[in-house]
């Protein structure tokens, strides 16, 4: 059975989303013009043709290029508000937004410009769209730990606006242990530790993220399936995986959605959530991920309910906020 309508109205949270990855080609061109930036592509159609990826690195090269049109506070505001409007349309009640400060500070854009633009949009969206959000500052793992320390330092005046730290970018060759000290320091500052692990990297990287970085949630985590002891450990620790199906097929982590391990993960007892990762690049927003994976794997209403429930349960919201969202979901499911 196809459940597009049911999915569209299902109350849900998104826990794995890069704000730079929500930059739609149309907005990218608008911002390039506004900031007098010459692009390599003549049109939106031509740019879209470049969105063909063989692996994570292929994508990252284009994604960092795209982000170079973001210059002013207004740019970051427009980018973020536009995503939050899409959340409202999809009945995403809460979202946990990753941002990559180093992608911008490396180009001479101040940390302050980035965080102010993003967080102002979040405040306005709460008021006008009733979508709640919080921010995850992600360190780029292809850069050095010293560089991450500089970013941590820059974030401190804005600590009240940031809930967690993450780790993203090129996984292979950049194990979590490279960032042991900066994660320890981030935890001391009150940030909750999260990390991408096991997207392209081996199960050992997931073990390191758990044991060395002390993470509370695993971004992707697909490759845990290669290690039964690791699966047992993740279940024992009651940790969630933020799974991103359309990202996985776009980056050739999974060949075909029909072979996506989501259902298997659920059957094994792993707690999983569905997410869009970089929707402007991977062919679909969160609801499109739900719709396509439901169809490919024949997910039932109970499965969809479990995924939505996990998205609130494993969010970084307070227990009270979780309960409010869960009550709303419960009501929807019962009707
Ligand atoms: N899927 C992904 N993996 C690692 N780094 C990323 N940055 C943006 N999207 C990413
Ligand atoms: Zn990601």
Main traits of this protein?
335 residues; TIM Barrel; binds zinc ion; hydrolase; alpha/beta; nucleotide metabolism; zinc ion binding
**Strand order of the biggest β-sheet:** 1-2-3-4-5
Q: Which overall shape is indicated by the principal axes computed on the Cα atoms?
A: globular
Mean pLDDT: 98
The major pleated sheet works out as: 5 strands, parallel
Bound molecules: adenine, zinc ion
Q: How much beta, percentage-wise?
A: 5-15%
Structural class: alpha/beta
Number of helices: 17
How many strands in all? Answer: 9
Q: How much helix is in the residues?
A: 40-55%
Task: Indicate the low-confidence ranges by residue numbers.
Answer: none
- Quaternary structure of the protein: single chain
Radius of gyration: 19 Å
CATH topology: TIM Barrel
Kindly describe this structure.
This protein is α/β, with parallel strands linked by helices and 335 residues long. It has one domain: Metal-dependent hydrolases (TIM Barrel, Alpha-Beta Barrel). 51% of the residues lie in helices and 13% in strands. It is built from 17 helices and nine strands. The strands form two sheets. The chain has a five-stranded parallel beta sheet with strand order 1-2-3-4-5. The mean pLDDT is 98. The site of zinc ion has 6 residues, from strand 1.
């Amino acid at each position: 059975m196809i459940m597009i309508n049911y999915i569209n109205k299902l109350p849900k949270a998104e826990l794995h989303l890069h704000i730079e990855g929500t930059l739609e080609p149309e907005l990218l061109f608008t911002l390039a013009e506004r900031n007098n930036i010459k692009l390599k592509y003549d049109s939106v159609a031509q740019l879209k043709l470049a969105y063909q990826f063989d692996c994570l690195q292929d994508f990252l090269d284009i994604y960092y290029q795209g982000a170079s049109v973001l210059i002013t506070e207004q740019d970051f505001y427009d980018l973020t508000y536009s995503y939050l409007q899409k959340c409202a349309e999809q009945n995403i009640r809460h979202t946990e937004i990753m941002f990559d400060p180093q992608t911008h500070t490396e180009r001479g854009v101040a940390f302050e410009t980035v965080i102010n633009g993003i967080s102002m949009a979040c405040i306005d969206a709460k008021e006008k769209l009733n979508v709640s959000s919080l921010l995850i500052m992600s360190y780029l793992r292809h850069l050095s730990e010293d560089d991450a320390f500089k970013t941590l330092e820059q974030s401190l005046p804005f600590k009240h606006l940031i809930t967690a730290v993450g780790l993203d970018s090129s996984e292979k060759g950049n194990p979590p242990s490279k960032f042991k000290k900066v994660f320890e320091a981030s935890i001391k500052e009150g940030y909750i530790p999260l990390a991408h692990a096991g997207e392209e990297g081996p199960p050992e990287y997931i073990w390191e993220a758990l044991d060395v970085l002390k993470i509370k949630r695993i971004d992707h985590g697909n490759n845990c399936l290669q290690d039964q002891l690791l699966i047992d450990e993740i279940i024992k620790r009651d940790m969630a995986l933020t799974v991103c199906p359309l990202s996985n097929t776009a980056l050739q982590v999974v060949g075909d959605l029909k072979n996506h391990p989501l259902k298997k993960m659920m059957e094994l007892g792993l707690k999983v959530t569905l997410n869009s990762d970089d929707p402007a690049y991977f062919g679909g927003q969160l609801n499109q991920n739900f719709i396509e994976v439901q169809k490919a794997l024949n997910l039932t209403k109970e499965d969809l309910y479990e995924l939505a429930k996990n998205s609130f349960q494993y969010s970084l919201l307070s227990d009270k906020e979780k309960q409010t969202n869960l009550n709303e979901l419960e009501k929807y499911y019962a009707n």
